[in-house]
Design brief:
This protein is an alpha+beta fold. The chain is built from three helices and three strands, in the order αββαβα.
């Protein structure tokens, strides 16, 4: 049986931690950030943990990570 290919767009956007949590960057960092408060801007710099509803789908797209 052939190897499963990794979905490269998913692999670039998500990271699986050692404890099998999935991290991704918070959206909306590109532009229009001058109107937002300092707290919002700082919070957007952090990675956030994905909810458990889409974990199975993401792990299917990244079988070797």
């Amino acid at each position: 049986m052939p190897k499963i290919k990794t979905h490269k767009a998913t692999a670039k956007r998500f990271k699986i931690t050692r404890n099998n949590k999935i991290l991704h960057r918070k959206a909306g960092q590109d532009h229009f950030n001058a109107r937002e408060s300092g707290n919002t801007t700082r919070n957007k710099r952090r990675d956030i943990i994905i909810s458990s509803t889409v974990v199975k789908t993401i792990k299917q797209l990244m079988p070797y990570n």
